[in-house]
Design a protein that fits this description.
- The protein contains 16 helices and four strands.
- The protein is mainly alpha-helical and 339 residues long.
- The chain folds into three domains: 100 residues, no CATH class; 72 residues, Cytochrome Bc1 Complex, Chain D, domain 2, CATH 1.10.760; 111 residues, Cytochrome c-like domain (Cytochrome Bc1 Complex, Chain D, domain 2).
- It has a two-stranded antiparallel ribbon.
- A hairpin with a 5-residue loop joins strand 3 and strand 4.
- The longest helix has 21 residues.
- The protein is elongated.
- 31% of the residues are buried.
- Bound molecules: heme C (3 copies).
- The site of one heme C (HEC) has 22 residues, from helix 13, helix 14 and helix 15.
Length: 339
């Protein structure tokens, strides 16, 4: 199964390159979460029975042979329904390049998405109200699959990057990812590469991308938590200062405990990113960004301009203080904080 997955990923990246280069105009329907449900069954009802044949036709066979969830089983399909929506609407599933991906129609994709939007019901329910814009046809936005492949060139297939300078995105807090993309888009967060990429993204695409990358599973979650637990509590060499970071950042050690919630003066939540498993040199570079003001978020700016991170005499950033903490976090497993 490991090999299959690996081959799948190789295939995916090759395909991605070809696809991206060819820049083909294939339309992928996507249904941003903020929009009402897309195409409905003619009678306006939606149930597991209505989508199960689609899962059987386009998903089950490949999934069974690659150890992926059996979507003909209601409980399994429901448990991954958010991913189903993200993956089917973005064109990531059925797996790119497969026969199934060629065969499935836009209406069929929309039907699956409508089922998830309706709460992935077992019994028939009325699909979202006959509505605003006579939603019988699928909504068409520019093909997101091209964009996802472009992102994956730098952020890695499955959202785990292989370069030290490009952060992992898999499993990262969705609201946080969305905020970063919006900040890259309007220039509040400065980085040439990302500013260039984000300026062309619509807000609907940003929603979709944040939710797509947030739903990727970087690791076996159980194993990740277990390893982290052991590392943090049994490591005797935790760099000084690490505990204060853990207080706010993904605290994977307490099973199921959400990230600490921070709010701004108006009571709006400030999303806190997970930094476990993040690239060490990326963590250091972000201290530089907060210190310079290339990222203007008071909480981290205050930390980055303080002793011991700033040398009292020279006023310069003290990388020697940050490096061991960054190394520590980078060795922890990446977790999915949205699960
Ligand atoms: C040709 C093979 C193939 C087909 C067809 C396929 N998948 Fe997948 N699917 C995979 C592979 C491989 C993965 C693992 C991807 C990864 O983790 O990189 C996967 C993963 C998933 C996941 C994530 C599962 C999890 O537990 O994280 C979902 C959800 C999913 N597929 C939905 C679908 C749906 C819905 C269809 C049909 C409309 C479908 N897939 C068709 C190969 C396939
Ligand atoms: C050419 C390489 C490249 C491409 C393509 C790329 N990125 Fe990035 N991305 C980067 C780099 C480098 C950074 C780190 C920027 C910094 O240092 O502030 C980054 C940062 C990010 C961040 C912030 C992560 C964090 O933890 O704060 C997000 C979110 C992001 N990228 C999303 C995307 C998405 C979505 C796409 C596709 C639309 C994409 N990127 C395409 C290189 C790339
Ligand atoms: C009071 C809460 C708090 C504490 C304590 C804290 N952080 Fe943060 N951190 C945040 C928030 C909120 C953000 C997101 C800021 C933004 O949107 O740019 C963040 C962002 C970051 C980022 C950027 C992550 C990325 O994906 O780009 C890094 C790296 C980071 N913190 C490291 C640390 C380290 C190391 C420590 C300990 C020395 C620490 N933080 C302490 C709240 C905190």
């Amino acid at each position: 199964m490991k090999l299959k997955r690996f081959l799948g990923i190789i295939f995916l990246s090759l395909f991605g390159i070809i696809y991206f280069t060819a820049c083909s105009g294939k339309k992928v329907n996507l249904q941003p979460s903020s929009e009402p449900a897309g195409a409905q069954t003619t009678d306006g009802e939606i149930s597991f029975a209505a989508v199960k044949p689609l899962f059987n036709q386009y998903c089950v066979q490949c999934h069974m042979s690659s150890g992926m969830p059996d979507l003909s089983d209601y409980e399994k399909a429901k448990s991954v329904s958010t991913k189903i929506k993200n993956f089917v609407s973005s064109g990531f599933m059925p797996q790119q390049g497969s026969e199934e991906a060629q065969a499935i129609s836009d209406e069929e994709r929309s039907k699956i998405i409508s089922w998830v939007n309706a709460g992935a019901p077992l019994e028939a329910v009325q699909a979202a109200p006959e509505g605003s814009a006579g939603m019988s046809a699928a909504i068409e936005l520019p093909p997101l699959l091209n964009t996802i492949n472009q992102c994956m060139n730098c952020h890695g297939n499955n959202g785990v990057s292989s370069s030290e300078n490009n952060p992992n995105l898999a499993g990262q807090d969705e609201l946080y990812l969305k905020k970063q993309l919006l900040h890259f888009k309007d220039g509040r967060r400065k980085n040439q590469t990302m500013n260039g990429i984000a300026k062309d993204l619509s807000n609907a695409e940003i929603d979709m991308l944040a939710s797509f990358f947030g739903s990727l599973q970087p690791n076996d979650p159980e194993q990740a938590l277990e390893e982290t637990y052991v590392k943090i509590y049994e490591s005797k060499n935790m760099p000084q200062g690490t505990m204060s970071c853990v207080g706010c950042h993904a605290n994977p050690t307490f099973k199921g405990q959400p990230l600490k919630t921070i709010t701004d003066d108006n009571g709006a939540p400030i999303p806190v990113p997970a930094i476990s498993g993040q690239k060490s040199s990326y963590i250091v570079s972000q201290f530089q960004n907060y210190y310079n003001g290339d990222r203007k978020i008071a909480i981290m700016q205050q930390i980055a301009i303080q002793h011991p991170f700033v040398n009292k005499e020279t006023g310069e950033l003290n990388v020697d203080e940050i490096q061991p903490i960054a190394d520590f976090f980078s060795e922890l497993p990446i977790i999915n904080v949205n699960d």
